[in-house]
Design goal:
The protein is of the alpha/beta class. The chain has helices spanning about 5-25, 30-45, 50-55, 55-75, 85-110, 115-125, 130-140, 145-175, 185-210, 220-240, 245-255, 260-285, 290-295, 300-320, 330-335, 345-360, 365-390, 410-420, 435-440, 455-460, 475-490, 510, 525-535, 550-555, 595-610; strands spanning about 400-405, 425-430, 445-450, 465-470, 495, 515-520, 540-545, 560-565, 575, 590-595. The chain folds into two domains: about 5-395, Na+/H+ antiporter like fold, CATH 1.20.1530.20; about 400-610, 3-Layer(aba) Sandwich (Rossmann fold), CATH 3.40.50.720.
Amino acid sequence: MVPSILFEIMLIGLLGIGSQWLAWRYRMPAIVVMSITGLLVGPILGIINPEEDFGRLYGSIISVAVAIILFEGSLNLSFKELRGLGKPVFRISTVGAFIAWILGSLTAHYIAGLSWAVAFVIGGLFIVTGPTVIMPLLRQSKLKPRPAKILKWEGIIVDPIGALLAVFAFEIIAYFTSSNPDGSALLLFFAASIFAAIFGWVCGRGIGWMFETGHVPEFLKSPVVFVVVILCFTIADEIMHETGLLSVTAMGITLANMGISSVSDMRHFKENITILLISAIFIMLTASLQMETLLHIFSPNIIGYVLLMMFAVRPLSIFLSTIGTGLTTNEKLLVGWIAPRGIVALTVSSYFASILTDAGYEDASILTTLTFGLVFFTVLAHGFSIGWLAKKLNLSMEGRPGSLIVGSNKFTVELAKSLAKANVPIIIVDNSWERLRLARESGVPFYHEDMLSEQTEYNLDTIPYEYLIAATTSNSYNALVCTTFMPEYGRTNVFKLSPYDTEYGTSKEIVSKVGGRVLFKKEVNLDALIEKIENGFVFRQTTITEQYSYKQYLQEKDEETVFLYLIKPSGQIKYYSEEMRTVPGIGDTIVSLMPPKKEKARIEARLEEN
């Protein structure tokens, strides 16, 4: 029975998001899982073939999805991020791209056996990496900020450049091989590229102006942006193929640097759409491949080409282009290795395979096989190696999940000190230099700025911190912080101290409708915790063993004891909260705030045992 189009759409969505979940659950590269899943349901098992089943719509769906993904990625390209990194990013995106084009073209000719014409077209295309493959890798690997930003900027900026280089190479070839050379096609190419960049800038400025002046209501802002992105891409692409990518990139960068708050507010929604599109597109592309294409990628000339691109062309282009840019050798090694190819390479190469073949270049028929070989091997190699290599080069933020605490006071400083003793990365953020005095005197890492300010977003490195705790004296500010950062940290990793006022009471309905889980117990708010610290309460670690069970611990604990957090044997931290249902097991260490008399009794009992 042939599946209906509706069933196929459902299956693609299910497999794409299912692959993302499996990758998250078992800590695998998402792009690897998606690629393998697509191959299984496509050429291997023959369940679906989206290119055949969707017909003419297939190419349009892929093109629009790529445009939206590239636009969303470019929305993250704020020039403020480039402080200290402008020189290496510029060099890699220009000099590095040019070197990679020349070396890649030479490799395609001498190793893959392509004619000079086809080699220079494909050499230009293969300089791309792209947000569809780079972003999932960065999300998974937890790189330090410098290499992560370089890879992100390169992936988004070079994407349209690579496509344009391929078009430029084709136009040059057509000009020199024509019996009646006409320079109008070349002039059209340059004019169309300039128009695409200007048109993207105009669309970005226009959207920004409409948002700032209130010409678009809040509920229509996201739909308007997406419609304009498609319009921006389509008009530019209709004038000259592949210039649409340049246009949407220019639009995204323009909006990213206008400082419009409503654009930032939509970012998490657009990220969710992008994840859905990436998941679906990877499944569609890999499921549409033919079995002979898969078998052909293991031919010696293609494997030799892929290996040289990975181990020679990419590292050389990075090392040569970053001379004198201030990058360390380790950063050059990492950036020089990580260059997975993705959706743009696959879609654009299929376009050029057809037009080059029609133009009489028979060797262009292997472009799809060559492209998939490079995509598949780079996705596998870089997907599985980025985390390991980053650790080896000391460019990874891996370690125990850290905690970012908003609000400096007697309790949070003591909590931070206890976490630091457990080797947990910690930082306290507060906009009051006076309140931060406690943190400074205790040697606790701190950051002096409002957590919700734009300066904090760009200057504070939040990568080491998986948990956020809002613990200021203002319950409404705590709720606002939690609501703001919940999409970034995840619902289960954002906490606030109890907003319940034991004297006047607080509506449970109101509390449940704002962001953040209530930390510890609802009966224990910040005032109560500070009072306990002032009364000499101490932080106590107790490890649950076979001889000393959790049940025994509960029987012996004082009624005033407050459970704070668990340290699992793996090093993972689990905070106690109103919603916590985890029962500590053998090997878990419970950290609690205990009355001084109880702690004194424990010490005396230990002395008597000895």
